[in-house]
C-alpha cells in the first residue's frame, strides 16, 4: 500500500471527470442549483369561453372601478407541450409563425429605464429582424412590455394572439400615418421579439401553437378597449388538433419570435401564433420568478 503511493500517477488517471458521475450537468440546473424543467409536459391552458349572454366579447385595458375587465370566460384544457430545445431548426416564421434565435448578445443589462431600452435595445432588435427576416426592408418598433414579479405586468396565462388582421392594419395607420396607404399595399407583418431577463426560465414559460395546426374558425376577435380607442386581439378556442410547444430553459441570449400577423396569405395561410404563459407543474420550489421583455415590431417588405 505505502509503496504504491509514491509511484507517479499515470497520465490517463489525471483527468477528474468520470462518465459515471451523478453530478447534474451544468445545463440541467440554474444559478440557484435548481433543476431546469425540460422535455414534454402536460399543463392546463386557458382557452376561450363565449359570454353567457351571447354579447360580443370585449376586454378593458383599464377597467373603470367596479367594471369587470372582460365579459367572456375561461375554458381550461390539459394540453401536452413539446420542448423545442434541440429541434429549433424544424420551425420557421413562414411555416409555423414562430422562430428561435440563440447566442444573441445585448449591450443592455438592466432593463430598468425605458429611455435606455429604446436607445440601446431597440436598435439591436431592429437589426436582428432586418438581418434575419426574409424580405424585411423596414422595421418599426412600436411597443414593449417588461414583466417582473415585482412590477405591474405579470405573465399572461390566457391563450391569445396580440392582433387580428383588422388591428394589424390599424397599427400601420397609427404608427406610419404618412405612408400608410403604400405600406398597406405591400407585405406587412407584426412580430414580437421575446426574451427572459433572468434566464434560464424556470416557470411560466411561453407556450406557442404551431400556426399550421390552428384553424381560422377557432380564432375569436375580441374588442380591446383602450381609454382612447378600440383595438382588437384574438382569443383562441381549444381544438385537439392544435400542436403546442415551449422552449425549455430560455436564457438571456435566446430570442423567441412570435408572428402575430402576416398580410401575405400565400405564406403559411395568414401565419399567426397563439401563445400563452403556463404554470409548469415541474417548477421547483423557490425558483426565481420569470422576468422578460417583449418588443413589438411592424416589419415591412
Ligand atoms: C407576448 C405575450 C406574455 C408573457 O409576448 O405577446 O403575450 O407572459 N407575452 O410574456
Ligand atoms: Fe401576446
From TrEMBL:
- Protein's name in the database: Methyltransferase
Write one Gene Ontology MF term.
oxidoreductase activity
Which residues does the annotated region (Disordered) include? 1-35
In the record, the note on similarity to other proteins reads:
Belongs to the asaB hydroxylase/desaturase family.
Organism, as annotated: Ophiobolus disseminans
Comp. bias intervals (Low complexity): 13-24
InterPro entries, sorted: AsaB-like (IPR044053)
Amino acid at each position: 500500500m505505502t509503496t504504491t503511493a509514491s509511484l507517479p500517477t499515470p497520465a490517463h488517471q489525471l483527468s477528474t471527470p468520470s462518465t459515471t458521475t451523478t453530478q447534474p450537468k451544468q445545463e440541467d440546473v440554474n444559478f440557484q442549483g435548481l433543476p431546469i424543467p425540460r422535455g414534454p409536459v402536460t399543463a392546463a391552458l386557458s382557452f376561450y369561453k363565449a359570454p353567457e349572454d351571447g354579447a360580443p366579447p370585449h376586454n378593458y385595458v383599464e377597467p373603470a372601478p367596479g367594471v369587470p375587465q372582460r365579459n367572456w370566460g375561461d375554458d381550461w384544457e390539459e394540453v401536452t407541450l413539446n420542448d423545442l430545445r434541440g429541434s429549433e431548426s424544424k420551425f420557421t416564421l413562414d411555416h409555423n409563425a414562430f422562430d428561435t434565435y440563440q447566442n444573441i448578445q445585448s449591450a443592455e443589462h438592466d432593463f430598468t429605464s425605458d429611455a435606455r431600452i429604446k436607445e440601446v435595445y431597440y436598435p439591436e432588435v431592429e437589426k436582428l429582424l432586418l438581418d434575419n427576416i426574409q424580405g424585411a426592408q423596414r422595421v418599426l418598433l412600436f411597443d414593449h412590455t417588461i414583466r417582473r414579479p415585482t412590477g405591474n405586468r405579470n405573465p399572461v396565462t390566457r391563450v391569445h394572439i396580440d392582433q387580428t388582421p383588422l388591428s394589424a392594419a390599424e397599427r400601420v395607420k397609427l404608427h406610419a400615418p404618412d405612408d400608410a396607404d403604400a405600406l398597406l399595399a405591400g407585405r406587412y407583418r407584426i412580430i414580437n421579439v421575446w426574451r427572459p431577463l433572468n434566464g434560464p426560465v424556470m416557470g411560466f414559460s411561453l407556450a406557442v401553437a404551431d400556426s399550421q395546426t390552428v384553424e381560422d374558425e377557432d380564432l375569436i376577435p375580441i374588442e380591446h378597449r383602450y381609454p382612447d380607442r378600440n383595438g382588437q386581439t384574438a382569443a383562441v378556442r381549444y381544438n385537439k388538433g392544435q400542436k403546442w410547444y415551449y422552449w425549455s430553459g430560455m436564457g438571456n441570449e435566446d430570442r423567441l419570435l412570435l408572428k402575430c400577423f402576416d398580410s401575405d396569405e400565400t405564406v403559411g395561410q395568414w401565419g399567426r401564433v397563439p401563445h400563452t404563459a403556463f404554470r409548469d407543474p415541474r417548477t421547483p420550489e423557490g425558483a426565481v420568478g420569470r422576468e422578460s421583455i417583449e418588443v413589438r415590431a411592424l416589419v415591412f417588405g
